[in-house]
Amino acid sequence: QVQLVASGGGLVQVGGSLRLSCAASRGTFSSYTVAWFRQAPGKEREFVTAMSRNNDSHYIDSVKGRFTISRDNARNTMNLQMNSLKPEDTGVYYCAVRWSPYNSNAYYYHRSSDYSDWGQGTQVIVSS
């Protein structure tokens, strides 16, 4: 069991930026696929982006060119840089990890059920 703590959320204006972080209390990211999901009020949780152990990344179309996922395996930390934020980006953002013994394409793991360990979530509100 990997315990994750997400942070960095807040209230920003349209077009602003936020950098979310997720730190693991134990374990290592070097053999994990890492991902970010989000859940808007009254809606189901959706996949946003993931990065495989071999640094392949995948993004949903709505955030391509605006969001960037990164990882620091030495510090067991993952990040999500969010630029040009839009009101539809509002929601609670969750980090998640999945043990991945082999290299893979990040797109392969895009469902909530693919991930075993989750952070508590950090809220992002984009005002319009």
Please sum up the structure shown.
The protein is an all-beta fold and 128 residues long. The protein is built from no helices and eleven strands.
Break the fold down into its secondary structure elements and pairings.
Blueprint: E1 4-7, E2 10-13, E3 18-24, E4 32-39, E5 46-51, E6 57-59, E7 67-72, E8 77-82, E9 91-99, E10 117-118, E11 122-127
Parallel strand pairs: 2-11
Antiparallel strand pairs: 1-3, 3-8, 4-5, 4-9, 5-6, 7-8, 9-10, 9-11
Strand content: over 45%
Unreliable residue stretches: none
Number of helical stretches of at least 4 residues: 0
How many strands, which pairing sense, and closed or not: the largest β-sheet? 7 strands, mixed
**What distance lies between the first and last C-alpha atoms, to the nearest angstrom?**
39 Å
> H/E series, N to C?
EEEEEEEEEEE
Number of strands: 11
Helical proportion? under 10%
Q: Taking all residues together, what is the mean pLDDT? A: 94
